[in-house]
Amino acid sequence: MKHRADHPCVLPGDPAWIDDARYVQEILDCLAAAAAVAHDYGDPEKYVLPHLPFQVAADTLGRIRCDMPPARRDAVFLMALPAFELEALWEVLGVLRRARDADEDAAEVLDLARDYAMRCFTPPRGIDEVVADLERILAVLSLDIPAVRTVATTLLLEGEHDDAFRCAREELFAAWRAAGLTGIPGPDASP
Description:
Layout: E1 6-12, H1 16-19, H2 22-40, H3 51-67, E2 76-82, H4 83-100, H5 107-119, H6 127-142, H7 146-156, H8 163-178
Antiparallel strand pairs: 1-2
Helix pairs in contact: 2-3, 2-5, 3-4, 4-5, 4-6, 7-8
């Protein structure tokens, strides 16, 4: 399979889609630390993955959150995401899904993620919520429909926000709402 060096991501102007899931980054940081310790003690598969994918995924979420411009509800932003970061997020999601589904090999991931999510956050979160929030984040980052290319091209070339751009932006808003993001403008949003 051939991978692109960067994946163009068009992101919602309201950063709530990733800010509300900050706790996911903290859980991934915790899993990265635990996997590193397990590796040092000769049990590199204890957390299914080595520590690096967990750490890359956590760092990616943190970088995206930090790089988001000030909130503008009807805006869209363009960000290039290196392919290895997107792959790490997908790998980690796969492990968290296995943990949620009680896969025996992911039992340590389930124990650590569930305990951390339930005891360290207000309100407490369950493993289902951790998985759902990471899925929503990946739905934004991985969205690959023609509207993404139209909006990305217009933003890259600093083109006119014409009817084609506005129509593509509305398609993005609809896709994000369908993925469960809240705060996304409806079809009557201003241009």
